[in-house]
Amino acid sequence: MTTTAEAILNNLNTAQQLTDLHNAPAPWETPAPLGQRGELPPFPVHALPAWVADHVSAVAEETQTPTDLAGCVALAALSTAAGGRAVVNVRGSWIEPVNLFVLVAMPPGSRKSAVFRAMTAPLLHAENVLLNRIGPQITEAEVARRLAEDLAEKAARAASSAHGEAAAEAIAEAQSAALAVEDIKVPVKPRLLADDVTPETASTILVEQGGRLAVLSAEGGIFATLAGRYSGTPNLDLFLKGHAGDPLIIDRRGRSERVDQAVLTMGLAVQPEIVSDIATMPGFRGKGLLGRILYSLPKSNVGYRNVDAPTVPDPIAARYDANLQRLTIDMHDWHDPARLVLAPDAADIFTEHRRTTERRLRPDSGDLGHITDWAGKFDGAVMRIAGLIHLAGRVEDGWRHPISADTVNAAITIGQYFVAHALATFDAMGADADIEAARVVHAWLHRTATQRFTVREAFTALPRNRFRKVAELEPALDLLEQLGWIRREPEPPRTGPGRRPSPAYAVHPTLHQHGS
């Protein structure tokens, strides 16, 4: 029979067990990757015009790639078709061209080339149509120029051998013949696309083509070229001016070329490590190139693909080809860009969007405050996307109509997708000081296999040139705790006078298994 003392002891033990269970830390959950802000959103295909969206979805299904790749290349293709041929008059003197710089980062073996071919093939078809259309004029002008050159050469020889009164007349004829040669202009062969091209060559092509060109590639070699792989000196001038639509002047030996508006499109699919590499290339961020690019970091599905996926239905492919060709060909000869305006309700929506963006730019509380070089161009990018969606939605006569509220909302939706991916991209580039500080602490914990530490121990162990005061360490610890890598322990009760004990943290059991 249980005595009263035993019953009291059992009750005390049970109470202690309940207290211990209540105070026990919650089970560890899987920590979030350092530098990522949760899972990135997929490309909002539904925001594109139907004929573009259908083809994007079908190509992604056939190639078993994320819709991000085909969606971003589709935007680059629309930019190639309309870039330099249309602008958006946002308000007052605010004008945005409709060309884009788009970059998708995917690992090797992701079928980037197959998607590029499927999404850009109509541009090559349009280029051939334009070439066939102007081909006879080129041939005629070339023949006329050769004949004029022969006549000018004969007139020059006659003038050089003439004497007396005949000399003046012969010289005049030679000069007239030389001017006749200059008057014969041979049309340039239409060129819409370039791939692995130097900035110098791209500049020449762009000038020849009346101020427009697209650099589309399933590789990222253009960045090494821009950084000076061949010349030893970074050359970003064309890409900076070509994004903004600024004048471009090219001085060559014996000649100078100029376009009042240089409009360049860039669409690239690169390997993920290139995203980190370009952050260290001289001038890329300081001069503003990185802030001009719309980034996409889709999650790879390699290893989970359907090996027998359905192919793109012929009607979907045919409609995409026909519409993109028509948009490209119809706008190709426009030298005075179409000026697109916003409908009143669309302008109101965009004004409210800009208010939201402005708050996000605040350095103390905005989520975009650390990437203002990119975010400062975000609203302009939304308008560029709106212009492209508008023209693609009205292939026949988009320039005759204002941009609607639905189109602006669709552009904002796509813009928010690029915001999320830009934040992740710049985190990977080290643009966020808190992320970089958290990486330093994370690396120390990983290297030392630390299971528990105090703030004082961490401050003592970490580089003093990185954390000069304990207060500089706290944001990194807060971020690591938010992501689940560490957990702050309850403070022990005060037992007397003196300094409070340094806060202590437990370390996620799997941290030592992860790279820093």
Summarize the helices and strands and which ones pair or pack.
Blueprint: H1 4-23, H2 50-63, H3 67-82, E1 86-91, E2 94-97, E3 101-105, H4 112-161, H5 165-183, E4 193-194, H6 199-208, E5 212-217, H7 221-226, H8 237-244, E6 248-252, E7 255-259, E8 263-270, H9 272-280, E9 294-296, H10 314-332, E10 338-341, H11 344-360, H12 372-375, H13 378-393, H14 405-429, H15 433-448, E11 452-454, H16 455-461, H17 470-483, E12 486-488, E13 504-507
Parallel strand pairs: 1-10, 3-8, 3-9, 4-5, 5-8
Antiparallel strand pairs: 1-2, 6-7, 11-13, 12-13
Helix pairs in contact: 2-3, 2-4, 2-10, 3-4, 3-10, 3-13, 4-5, 4-10, 11-14, 13-14, 15-17
